[in-house]
Specification:
With about 80 residues, this protein is mainly alpha-helical. It has one helix and two strands. The chain has one domain. The radius of gyration is 36 Å and the shape is rod-shaped. The mean pLDDT is about 85.
């Protein structure tokens, strides 16, 4: 029987198969973690976009309110324009 570094060939092959199986499990675990990280990053991008969109909507609302106040203040007659005389 042939020996590799003092081990029978079938024992060496068995250990190699176990190592390959462990590497495959590790590769699968890394793949799952990578998939989860990509999903989390996608969620963060969506959250960031949603927050930016919400802030833009608030800014539009503030600008609309300021414009409405300006229009109302310009439409009111003020004392001293000759309307009361």
């Amino acid at each position: 029987m042939r020996e590799e570094a003092g081990q029978p060939l079938h024992s060496f092959a068995g250990e190699l198969i176990l190592e390959l199986a462990e590497e495959d499990k590790l590769a699968q675990a890394v793949g799952q973690v990578l998939h989860e990280m990509q999903a989390a990053l996608r969620d963060l991008r969506l959250t960031s976009f949603s927050l930016q969109q919400a802030e833009a909507i608030r800014r539009v609302g503030r600008a609309r309110t300021k414009l409405a106040h300006f229009v109302v203040s310009r439409a009111r007659p003020t004392i001293g324009q000759g309307d009361l005389m």
